[in-house]
């Protein structure tokens, strides 16, 4: 049986890409704001008292001090009210924004969970690696070349990409190569007549005019090594 490295990838909802506690309002941040909001009530109270004192009574003439008291009281009340309104809105807004962010992430996690029916998906991918001492893998590599029908192959190409076959609009990997394995396979392919023009710094051209005869010759050459012969069961 062909065997190789098996990689298992697990698909599951990932953790939040950001720190959900970043920007979380703490008591140390909210307490000073709350204290300032209470202090903002002081100018409001002072302004209200000045307005009450300066407001003209029935039958009383409006004097200069009263006008000044009304202007100053109105200014203090307005400034204190504006400051109190901005601070009193900051505290609940910070808390509301934090919990809104938490809720948004929880809903996103729940949606992913519902899409997968609460299941974790595990995908196993087997990578078959070429071995010059295994006739089965030699035969499989030869078949991969035949199906892939490349014009030429190099050690670098086999090491980096391996052998693929294109089926319709998709390409699927068939077998991987180490550098030594790629060199041995190309030498075997050239010796069996599957590559013409191969030489130093020259990849040559793939020529599979008679795939059966090339494959049988390559397998016969492989089985001349006692180690390859011992790796499989043979029948007379």
Quick gist of this model?
It is built from 8 helices and 6 strands. It is an alpha+beta fold. The chain folds into 2 domains: 106 residues; 102 residues, no CATH class.
Kindly report the average pLDDT value: 77
| N-to-C order of helices and strands | EHHHEHHEEHEEHH
The total of helices stands at 8
Task: State the helical fraction.
Answer: 55-70%
The main sheet comes to: 2 strands, antiparallel
Which structural category do the helix and sheet elements fall into? Answer: alpha+beta
Number of domains: 2
Strands side by side in the biggest sheet: 1-2
Poorly predicted runs of 5 or more residues? none
Describe what this molecule looks like in 3D.
The protein has 236 residues and is α+β, with helices and mostly antiparallel strands. It folds into two domains: 10-115; 129-230, no CATH class. Helix content is 56%, strand content 13%. The protein has helices at 27-39, 41-54, 64-115, 135-148, 155-161, 179-191, 211-223, 226-230, and strands at 4-11, 121-128, 163-167, 170-175, 195-196, 205-206. The protein is rod-shaped, with a radius of gyration of 41 Å.
Question: What is this structure's SSE topology?
Answer:
Layout lengths: L3 E8 L15 H13 L1 H14 L9 H52 L5 E8 L6 H14 L6 H7 L1 E5 L2 E6 L3 H13 L3 E2 L8 E2 L4 H13 L2 H5 L6
Antiparallel strand pairs: 1-2, 3-4, 5-6
């Amino acid at each position: 049986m062909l065997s190789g490295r098996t990689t298992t990838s697990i698909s599951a909802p990932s953790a939040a890409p950001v720190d959900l506690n970043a920007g979380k309002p703490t008591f140390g941040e909210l307490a000073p704001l709350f204290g300032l909001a209470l202090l903002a009530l002081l100018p409001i109270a002072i302004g209200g008292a000045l307005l009450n004192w300066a407001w003209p009574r029935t039958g009383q003439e409006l004097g200069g001090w009263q006008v000044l008291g009304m202007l100053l009281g109105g200014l203090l009340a307005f400034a204190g009210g504006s400051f109190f309104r901005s601070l009193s809105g900051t505290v609940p807004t910070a808390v509301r924004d934090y919990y809104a962010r938490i809720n948004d992430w929880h809903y996103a996690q729940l949606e992913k969970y519902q899409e997968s029916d609460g299941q974790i998906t595990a995908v196993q991918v087997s990578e078959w690696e070429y071995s010059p001492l295994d006739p089965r893998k030699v035969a499989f590599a030869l078949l991969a070349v035949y199906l892939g029908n490349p014009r030429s192959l190099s050690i670098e190409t086999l090491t980096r990409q391996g052998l693929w076959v294109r089926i319709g609009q998709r390409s699927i990997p068939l077998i991987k190569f180490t550098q030594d394995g790629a060199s041995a396979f190309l030498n075997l392919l050239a010796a069996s007549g599957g590559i013409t023009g191969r030489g130093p710094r020259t990849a040559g051209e793939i020529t599979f005019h008679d795939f059966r005869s090339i494959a049988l010759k390559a397998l016969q050459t492989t089985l001349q090594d006692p180690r390859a012969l011992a790796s499989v069961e043979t029948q007379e």
